[in-house]
Structures are given as structure tokens and as C-alpha cells.
Amino acid sequence: MDDLDHRNLGVKLKLWHLQEDAPGMVFWHPRGYAVYRVLEDYVRRKMRQAGYAEVRTPQLLPKEFWGRSGHWDKFGEHMFRVDDGEQAMALKPMSCPCHVQIFNKGLRSWRELPIRYAEFGACHRNEPSGSLHGIMRTRAFDQDDAHVFCREQDVEGEVACFIALLDEVYRELGFPDYEVALATRPAVRAGDDATWDWSEAKLGDAARRCGLVPQINPGEGAFYGPKLEFALRDRLGRSWQCGTVQVDGVLPQRLEASYVAPDGSRARPLMIHHAIFGSLGRMIAILLEHHGGVLPFWLSPDQVAVAPISKDQAGYGADVLAAFEDAGIRAVACDGADTLSRRIVAAHEMAVPVMAIVGGREMRDGRVSLRERDGSQADVPLAEAVSRLQARARPGALVAEALYARAYGFTP
Question: Can you tell me the distance from the alpha carbon of 284 to that of 295, in angstroms, rounded to the nearest whole number?
């Protein structure tokens, strides 16, 4: 592994660890979980703004349930099974059948559609040990899962809205160029050819409506429907498959989802499955490798390290730390016994983007010296330091970070 491999970076930056007796299971450390939560909250806000209601569904469900959905036959060998003495159970590999159960509670009208659910679903898949790769491919992961229940006439518009949302998120994360592929019907599938023809056409039309020209991946669709697959290309030119959107008429039928149509009859909804990241762990790994371990300010686990020059400024340093924390900035004290230069090196090694240095003059005048990773410094009043860093801490603020860098003369 090289120094920029996320498996090395995770250990070096004290973000997480993996261990041999729990293969494919991630132990998130405080710094790593801070990044995790920032990314999770960022997507949560995006989904809420797009009209999705967040839900939470069980991890353990009966084998019979997975049999009805078709997942036991298709994925059974990769599901973690539990026998409680009364019935066979399994940990969920995905959240979609659970969301149908929520939709099915109560009589639904066509006037309510589209109905949109989102979940950070904790999923477990018994992947072969040889396919595991750091936190990019694990046996336990959280998926930014979302589902839309809608009518045929809603499908193209809903898919196009998702693509626009995905495009916005990828751009704000620093991936303006991504690849898209249309995965078509596999040899073993559910549903008739007419349904597959219609679904594949709708996905292709929605992609083109958004200015995308998907390449065709023959036979790579899910067993219940075709999908658009989105892959990110990092700064090293490597491609990583992340987001997906799928059209499904099979699962609503198998799990007996229905709504009251305008003429009073019972009709089946269509179901759109989608995820922007696919796995939060995978996205964090991609971001780490893409940025060489130095995450953008808004994503950094520790955004600013407060360093008093001597013990005489310890009290003022604590006040500066509190001011940053009260403003929602992730700040950490850097006030050990080492020399200031060694503390700066230590913060640099942990990829902390900004040092807030306070000496006797800063304490006397109520100021702080902000030192960037490239060595540039700015001596400003504490209130201005807080407002500057607060602006950079806004989620997705890559553009703001670049403008800030140009305005204040440093390299982000």
C-alpha cells in the first residue's frame, strides 16, 4: 500500500481501524466518525430539501419476508442468517423491502404520490474475504438509501430530479466530471420484456434530459429492473462506482403495494431506488485518496488547532477554543509541553487545515494568528477569525474555500 491509500491514511490520521477477527467491520474512531457525521448530515439536509422523509427500519427480519421479496433466492448466500429456534432470520442487505412495508401501512391515494422515503440503512452482506478492500468494500456499511413510490407518468421527472441532486452533491464534493452507464436486463430477471423495454427507455430519457449520454452495460441491471450507475473519477484518474438509480415494478407487486387510482380501482405503484454515495464508508475512502488525506476545511475532522505559545496564554487559548466551538467549528487544543514548532508539525501531520496561534500580544489585544497549511498567516481579531472560519465550515463550501484562498492569499 502506498502513503495515499485510504487504508494507510485511516490509520495515520486516526480515523478508523479494521482487525482480523472482525473482517469487513469498521471501528470508527472519534476523528473518523466526525467526518462520517458531517457527510451524513450533509446528505440528510439535501434529501430533506428534495422532499424526502427520513425513516428507520429493522436490521433483522424473517427469512419468509426476504423470500417474498425475492432477495433470499437472489442474495441468500451473501446474507447473514440467524436461527432463533423458532424461525430463520437474516440481517438486511438493503432497505428497499422495508420501505414497502411503511408504504403499505394505510390506504394510499394517487393524490399522495410521489411518496419519497430516505434512510441511512445499516446493511450487512457476507462478502467473500478476498473481495474486501479497506472501507471501500466491507461486510457492514451504511447506505444512503432512498425510494420513490410513484405512477408511470412520474418516473422520468423523478429520475431527472435525482440526477440533478446527485450532480449538485458530486460537484460540491469536488467531482464535476463523473461517468454514467445504463445497466440493462440480465439473463435471469423478473418481469416481462415490455416492462424492461419501458424502464430502460425511461432511464435513458431522464439521463439525456439532464445532458448525460450513458454508455450501455448489457446484462448488468438488477434482477428487478435496469439502473443508471454513476462513477466518480478521482485526481489519479481512477474510476469508482458510487451512485445508482433503478426503476422497479417487481418489488411492489411481490409485496402487494397498492394505491387508489383516480377511477377508484387499486393500482400498483412503481418504485424508484436510488443512492448518491452507495456507501458512506466508500465515499470517505474516495475523498481521502482524492485529496491525498488533506480533506477540505468543511470535512476535516479537526478544523482548527488552538496553540498557546506558552502556559501564560493557556486561559486565553481556552477562551479562543470555546469561541470556535460555540460557532460550530471543530476545534482542538494543541497546548502540550512540546515547542510550538513541534506542535505545528504534529497538527500538520494530522492534516489540521488551520492553526490558531495565541501569544502574549494576541491575548492582550483579543486577537488570534491564523496559520494555514501553506505557512501563510493572518493576525485578526478573534471575532473576525470566528467569522472567517465559520464561512469556510459551511457544508459543501469548496467554491467558497477557493474564493477565500484567493482573497486571503493562501493555498487550500
Answer: 10
The yes-or-no verdict on residue 399 having pLDDT over 50 is no
- Write out pLDDT tens, residues 346-358: 999 999 999 999 9
Q: Check: CB of residue 70 under 8 Å from CB of residue 223.
A: yes
CB 230 within 8 A of CB 242: yes
Evaluate whether 263 touches 29 at the Cβ level (below 8 Å). Answer: no
Q: What is the mean pLDDT of residues 326-355?
A: 92
- HEC string for 312-362: HHHHHHHHHHHHHHHCCCCEEECCCCCCHHHHHHHHHHCCCCEEEEECHHH
Pairing of strands 88-91, 60-62: antiparallel
Residue type, position 226, single letter: P
Domains, the chain, with CATH or none: 6-290 (3.30.930.10), 297-408 (3.40.50.800)
pTM of the model: 0.90
More confident residue, 36 or 188: 36
As annotated, the active-site residues are: 96, 125, 143, 145, 147, 227, 273
Up-side HSE of residue 245: CA atoms within 13 Å toward CB? Answer: 28
User: What span, in angstroms and rounded, lies between the C-alpha atoms of 64 and 250?
Assistant: 17
